[in-house]
Each structure stands twice: as C-alpha cells, then as structure tokens.
Amino acid sequence: MIIENTQTQMRKGILEYCILSIISRGEIYASDIINELKTARLLVVEGTLYPLLTRLKNNGLLSYNWVESTSGPPRKYYQLSQEGFQVLQQLDKTWEELAFAVQTSLEGRKSGSKVSLTKKVKQSHE
Amino acid sequence: MNKTIIININGIVFHIEEDAYDVLITYMNEVKQHFGNSTDSYEIVNDIENRLAEMFSEKLSASGKEVIVLAEVEEVTAQMGKPSDFDLADETAFESASGSRTERKLFRDTDDRIIGGVCAGIGHYFDLEPRWIRVLFLVSFLVFGSGLFLYLLLWIVMPKATTRADKMAMKGEKPNLQNFKKSFDEEMQAVKDNFGKAQQEVQPFLQRLGRFIEQLFSHLGKFLQGTGKILLKLAGVFIIGIGIIVLFALFVALLALLGIWTGEGFEVFPFTIVNPEYQVILYTSAFMVVLIPLVSLILLAIRVLFNRPSLNRNISFGLLITWLVALSTGLYYGFKTGGEFKEEARFTESIPLNPYPVYYLSLNDEKYLSREDSLAYGLKSDSFRGRIIINGDDSDMPENFELSIEKGEGKQPEMVLEYRANGKTFQKALASAKEIKYRFIQKDSILQFDPESYTKSGALWRNQRVKVILKVPENTRLIINARLNNYLNNYNLYDCLPDVANREKMDGEWIMKAEGLSCKNDSLFKANQFK
Questions:
Q1: Nearest-CA distance from B34 to chain A in Å?
Q2: Is the ipTM of this complex over 0.95?
Q3: What's the rounded Cα separation, in Å, for the pair B459 and A91?
Q4: What is the pTM of this model?
Q5: Would you report the helix, strand and coil content of chain B in percent, each value rounded to 5?
Q6: What is the pLDDT of residues B385-404, one digit of tens each?
Q7: What pLDDT, in 10s, does the model give residues B12-53?
Q8: Is B144 on the interface with A (CB under 8 A)?
Q9: Who among B53, B81, B93 is closest to A44 (CB)?
Q10: For residues B251 and B242, what is the distance between their CA atoms, to the nearest angstrom?
Q11: DSSP letter string over B501-516?
Q12: Which residues have C-beta within 8 Å of that of residue B284, sequence separation ≥ 6?
C-alpha cells in the first residue's frame, strides 16, 4: 500500500505537467493528448483526462475552440492561455530542480554501492 | 434477429442493439454518478458523451455497418475506462491543486446511528463524541421540544454518507489509497464484530465488568435499538395519521369556503373581507401554502416508516416552486384586497329627538332582530325562525358602533349618525357606507342603542362603522347605563358610579353643562378622580 501511495504521489504532479507541455505545442484535441500520453506510457484510459482538462480550463490555464468534425460531434481543441504558459515555465524550473535532485541522489546511490562493493572485495582479500 | 434502439448522443443519431444499449446506459449512469457531486459534472459528462459518439462514428464508418453492437460498446467503454479507474488520477490531481488541507463535510452517519445518524454526523463534523451531541439533543427535546423540529430539519438537509469517499470526507480523512485501505479494514473489522458501533462505544467499560455483563449490555443495546426503531415508527404512524386528518380537514375547509355544497361562499366575517372575484384563487393559494409543507412532512414520515428512498430531486424542486408560486399569488391577492380599503368615505344623517328634560340611555339587550326588522335591514330572514341573532358582546366582527355625547347648539336635541366605510375608490366606499343600517329605539325618554350596525347580507366587509353623536341642550339630565361604557368614547361612565361589585349594570346620573357632560353627584365624581 505504501508503495502504491508513493507511486500515485509521484505520478499525479507529473501528469498535469505533461499535459500542459503537450498542449503548449499548439491547439490539440483531447484524444490526441491521450495518444501522446500513451506513447509516453503515462495514462491508460481516456476518462481520466476530461475532468482534468475541465479543471485546468476552469483555473484559467487552458482555453478551447469548437472545431467542426467530419466523423462526429464538434471537437474541443485546447490551447494554453497566457497564465498557462507562465505556470508551465514555473513547472519547467521545478522539474529541472527535481530532475537534478533525483539524478544526483541516483548517482550517489550507484557510486555508494560501488564503494561498498570494493570494500567487500578488499575485505575478502584480506 | 435483434431488436435495435435509436439513440441520440448530443445531436447524433445511432442505431444500437438492445443488449449493447443496456451496457452503454449502465456505463453512462456510472459516469454521471461518479461526477455527480462536482460542479463541473455537466461539462465533463458532456465531453465524455461527445467522445463516445465520435468513437462510435469512427467504428461504424470503418466497418461499414449501421448498427452498434455489444462488442463495440465494450471496446469504446474500455478505451474510455471505468469510472473507478479515472477516479484515482482525478482525485490525486485535485489534491495537488487544493493542497493537503482536508475539509470535513457534514453528512449523516448511518453506520453509527440511533435514529437518523444526525448526531453522529455532527459529532464527526466538530470532532466531538456523538454521545455529547445526543445528550444535547435529548435535553432540547425534553425542555423545549423545539429540538425535535431542528432534528427533523437537519435530517432533511444533511445528506447521507453513502460512498466510502463520503464517509471519509465526513471524518475529515484524505480520500487517498492509504485511507481507502484503512477505511476498508475498519469496515471489515466492523463486520467481524457482530456488535454495532453503538455497542463498541461502551466496550472498554464492558471489558472491565467481564463477559457476563458484556453480553447483558449487548442484549440491552439491541433491545434499546429495537425499541428506538419502534418508537420512531410509532412517531411516523402518528405523524402520518394526524397529517392525513389535517389534510382531509383542509380539503373540506377549502371546498366549504369555495361553496361547493351551498353554492355560495361564507357570509361571515372574516370571509367577507375578500372580494368574491379573488376568493377562489386566494383560498386555493392559501391552501397550497399550508398543504405543501404538510405533504412533505407526511412523505418524510412515510420515508422513515417504510425505508423509502428520499423524494426525487425534481419532485421536491417542483413542490418548492409550487409553494413559492402559491405564496406569491396569495400575497399578491392579499395586497390587492388590502387595496380595497384605500379610500374612506363618510356621510352623516341627523335625526331630531323629542325633547325631554331627562333621557335614559341603555344598550339594547335583545339578542335578535324580529323578522320585520331583519327584512327592513335587508338581512337574511330564513334562518333562526325568522330572527337574526345579534352577536352583541360575543361578536366576532370588529367593533363597528361608537357613541359620543356632546352639547347641542340650540334647544332641539338630536342624534347625528355618521356612517363610514372604506373602498378602492371614494365612490365605492361611499356606496358601502350608504348600505349601513343602524337601529336605535326611542320610547319617550328612553333611548336604546344596538351594540352594532348592520350591512346587507352578502355585502363585503369594508370596515363599515357608525358613530352616533347624541347632542343634547344644556341642563339636560342623562341617566346612562354602565353597559354603554364600552361604546362611549368621550366619557368614562364609571366616573359617576359608586365603587361596588355589580356596577357594570348600574345607571349613572349625568348632567349636560356649558363645558360638557358632568356628574350629577359631584362628590362621587371627585371620589373617583382622587382614587
């Protein structure tokens, strides 16, 4: 249970960050966002996306246009608002810091384990 | 061969097989239920429906078929995901937005209930033990009785905690996976103990007293829970019974007021205030204003008694709207009726009296008018064997007769009758004033006054009233009965009476002087003044 909790905690912020970055590239349709996320192996079901998009839109980070579609009802094409871009910039910075932190601690772990290994080797030699 | 159904998803028409339709509608209901409480629910559900429609269109045009079958519905809903699957990501995302602060929500806790779970819910909300809330409510039941009303109100207003997320919001726990597990474990634990939560509260005490008493108490608890339910049901039966009787009485009253049986409305004050044109609408709306809360109360009692689900939201909303409409209609016609009292008119009539040195003034004791008088005054004479009862002291009409005694200008005593009435316009008011009849009897020097004036039968009550001004020359003596005191507005008759037990029916002797009426016996007057 603890591991699942941590996994969710990790994923939840990243999901929003990824969605904002995908939309920042230009107008995009919800199912295209899904495809992008699937390629990135972050999401499985489409239903997750709609409440999230609605919330981001209501927070003023996104706006949308209605575009007529040949294969069904009109589609909502999302784009980032001015505020959305600002938020994304801040998140970029945060992500860089986090990535650095993770990178550093991972390297530390790898080199740390090497140290202990060499110690063991030395001990066995003695 | 399969039956197909035509459905319309946001303006696009599909043919769908019956079994596929069943799956789809169940899925959509789950989705709606899942987002049911959030403010964005409508928009999200719409987005999902639109996407489903699009996926169906794509699938149909790809396969060249016309009808959606079960397999396609399953594929499409799998792609969209189960509501329980989009729950997790959504809820965690919400948490990141709102921070780690958790707000407690007010729900009824039906797991830990004695009656409706109101007290337990309040306890969770304020983080107090429910038993203290219960004690407070019990005290308010006993002392004021008003607590009962508050309890019922809260019961109606507070939603029941049904889902696990509700229950955790009620206890102020964060709805994340860890807590879901915790809550699930707790529920399993509760199932394992086959005692209810109510008994768990007293368990530390029970453990000290040993197994025997524990069992005794658990039986007692069950017994109390049982009787609690019985009491509640009895209260329900009582409310339904009384409610239905009142309802029936209201109906009968309404029909009687509208004159269903007699063909005409009531001609008794205060029903004569309302213009017949407005009567039907005003009585009906007043009836609705009382009826709707009563019906809601009965429905609530039925709900409690038979464990029925609460009223459909549309029905309760409809009832509320109807009530508001009835209330505003009632108020509108109420004010309209009030407007019919806007103008006041009066006209006077002078009647010369035969001069006497002494007059005996008294109230007419006769309790009814003769047949002749009734006809003369245009009253209905077919009831009470041709005589109409004068209500007199026990009249339910507002007072409509007053007497005043003044000094006349010349030698001729006279009686001035001043008729007054209200109406929407001056003409209408004057017409009503002219309809007023007043009877007084002069037998030689005896003047008898009726305690009230009359209007024609069927006439509306427009505050018709009469003021009788008796003008007598100087030095005229007046013997006035104390029973006129209630109607005489410019003197107090008791000023001229000795302070004895039955003076309400005694006669006092007065004399008209240059400065006005004064007591014949000066010492008596002074004694009364200095008391």
A1: 11
A2: no
A3: 83
A4: 0.43
A5: 55, 15, 30
A6: 444 555 444 456 677 889 99
A7: 888 998 888 888 888 888 888 788 766 778 888 888 888 888
A8: no
A9: B81
A10: 14
A11: TTGGG-EEEEEEETTE
A12: B254, B258, B326
